[in-house]
Amino acid sequence: MKSLFGRVCGGLASGVLLLVLTAAASRTNPVDEAVAAALGSRDADFAERCTDEVFVRRVYLDMLGTLPQPRETEAFLRSRDPDKRATLVEQLFRREEYADYWSLRWGDVLRIKSEFPINLWPNAVQAYHRWIRQALHENRSYDSFARALLATSGSNFRDPPVNFYRAVAARDPSSLARATALTFLGTRLESWPAEAQADMATFFSRVAWKKTLEWKEEIVYSDPLSKGDLATRLPDGRTVVVPEAVDPRTIFADWLTQPENPWFARALVNRVWYWLLGTGITEPAGAIPRGADGRPASAGAGEEVLRVLEKEFRASGYDLRSLYRLILTSRTYQQSSVQLQGETPAEMAFTRYTIRRLDAEILADALAWLGGVGPGYSSPIPEPFTFIPDSQRTIALADGSITSPFLVKFGRPSRDTGLLSERNNQPSEEQALFLLNSSEVRKRIDASPVLKAVYNLPKAQRAEQVRRIYFVLLNRLPTAEEQNLVASYAETIGDLSRAARDLAWALINSKEFLYRH
Predict the structure, then answer these.
(1) Contacts of 67 (CB under 8 A, 6+ apart)
(2) With contact defined as beta carbons under 8 Å apart, do 418 and 110 qualify?
(3) CA 422, CA 430: separation in Å to the nearest integer?
(4) Is the dihedral of CA 164, 169, 175, 178 positive or negative?
(5) Are strands 356-357 and 515-516 parallel, antiparallel or unpaired?
(6) Which residues pair with 209 in a beta bridge?
(7) Residue 269, Cβ neighbours under 10 Å: how many?
(8) Which of 422, 486, 491 is nearest to 5 (CA)?
(9) Distance (Å, rounded) from C-alpha 50 to C-alpha 43?
(10) Is the CA virtual torsion 185, 188, 189, 194 positive or negative?
(11) Rounded distance, CA 366 to CA 350, Å?
């Protein structure tokens, strides 16, 4: 087994790294034009396009948090439609997993969890998560989405957007302002001048809470007893006076969502770029620096790319799917992930898709799919007890407080801060040792309903057996070298079925399975 495992796990298998140039020229994409200009300034060029096998796996993971089923991969590869990649993107928007996975992404940013230090409690968590998922499912415009979160008043059970304020560890105006700046301006307010921080906090100085007779229900509202007008400055430096009868949050929301706002669209497109390509155009992706003029600091070589994305996003009416479509159908997104020898990270900017480990939730669901049964999460605290059925996907798990040792081990965020950096996708020795030695993982592989029929193929179909295992797990066929390696191993141990199970185990432990690429 050592020979087989060492060869398979040593890196991305050679079959994935075969690159092809498509005969049909792609349609002009404004993102690609901006990226081409940025590359030209340093005498660089795009990498070659990834293969169809790589693309189908990549886009399923990035849009659905889900591995493509073998039949889905096969249908895509068989298609002769020259626009099949764009067609696939449109199809993925209609999948239930799309709303599930992007709700998970927003759940991290919006800190959806029931327990300390957020303390939304289970009823509010479910209401909040359903509202976010429905907004994504219906493709609610991002400006409308943001305004609802910022300016809604009412019950945290019956008016779910008010949980934006309850999902902040502290309730003073400064804490609410910091959470708002991080979420919608993509910046760390504590890095701003003290006067700018105080001005920002003023917009949240009248947010108030009151309890009801229902367990853990709370009303969030603008305190009507506050007297006097409020004089403050917007983040762009303009002075405003908020009349006594007006909720200051609405004034801020009006400023935030106006087309000329320098922060709103930029923060969102930079975050989405990070989610889809693994790095922000400006880093850190969730903490854009503030310039001396109160505007976002320049992104350097990526400034024009950000400007184009902002322009297109605003022109679409803040349509999130339009933004995803623009990026996913670009040559930039569809580039190879293969790093050239001696190439530095700076040289790779805009020229490579970033290789990164699968999210904890995606990996948990992939192993559940292979094993035929889900994890079945539960949480005895806080009351009421929460039990998640085995059939529910991990990517659909609403509550950040409901977790497992596996999810913790593989870097699921605690959802305490809303920072993108809270999610840890860095590989570790502990993770590697777990996947190599876990009896539970091995049992799932050996008894896999997905691979059971493949394991039992006769010796005459050994080559077909290997092809099917590769196709199921890696969404591609094995190379001739890989076929020979497995054949040699099978002859050595003299047990074809055992060799097939060992191959599946080795592939699941490979970088090619565990990483986006």
Answers:
(1) 57, 60, 61, 362, 366, 369, 475
(2) yes
(3) 19
(4) negative
(5) antiparallel
(6) 220
(7) 28
(8) 486
(9) 22
(10) negative
(11) 29
CB 457 within 8 A of CB 494: no
d(CA 278, CA 361): 17
What six digits make up the tokens of 350?
Answer: 């805009």
Q: For the whole model, what pTM was predicted? A: 0.93
How far is Cα 483 from Cα 43, in angstroms, rounded to an integer? Answer: 40
* pLDDT in single tens digits along all 517 residues of the chain: 555 555 555 544 434 333 333 333 445 899 999 999 999 998 899 999 999 999 999 999 999 999 999 999 999 999 999 999 999 999 999 999 999 999 999 999 999 999 989 999 999 999 999 999 999 999 999 999 999 999 999 999 999 999 999 999 999 999 999 999 999 999 999 999 999 999 999 999 999 999 999 989 999 999 998 889 999 999 999 999 999 999 999 999 999 999 999 999 999 999 999 999 999 999 888 889 998 888 999 998 899 999 999 999 999 999 999 999 999 999 999 999 998 777 777 667 899 999 999 999 999 999 999 999 888 898 876 566 788 888 899 999 999 999 999 999 999 999 999 999 999 999 999 999 999 999 999 999 999 999 999 999 998 899 999 999 999 999 999 999 999 999 999 999 999 999 999 999 999 999 999 999 9
DSSP 182: I
Residues 6+ away with beta carbon under 8 Å from 465: 454, 455, 457, 496, 500
CA 172, 177, 179, 180 torsion-angle sign: positive
| Six token digits for residue 216 | 């853990």
Which residue matches tokens 């993925």?
92
Q: Is 44 helix (H, G, I), strand (E, B) or coil?
A: coil
Place of tokens 């350097």: 300
The angle formed by the CA atoms of residues 206, 210 and 213, to the nearest 5 degrees, is 165
Element (H, E) at 305: helix 303-315
Q: Token pair of 234, please?
A: 């917007």
Task: Look up residue 476 and give its two tokens.
Answer: 């591609």
Query: Which DSSP string corresponds to 149-176?
Result: HHH--EETTTSGGGHHHHTSS--SHHHH
DSSP secondary-structure letter at 383? S
CB 306 within 8 A of CB 281: yes
Measured CA distances, 256 to 263, 265, 353, 384 (Å): 8, 9, 32, 38
In angstroms, the CA 328 to CA 333 distance is 6
Look at residues 218, 106, 104 and name the one whose alpha carbon lies nearest to residue 166: 218
What is d(CA 418, CA 187) in angstroms, rounded to the nearest whole number?
11
CA terminus-to-terminus distance, the chain: 26
Rounded distance between C-alpha atoms, residue 247 and residue 205, angstroms: 10
Measured distance CA(208)–CA(223) in Å, rounded? 6
Three-state DSSP state, 359: coil
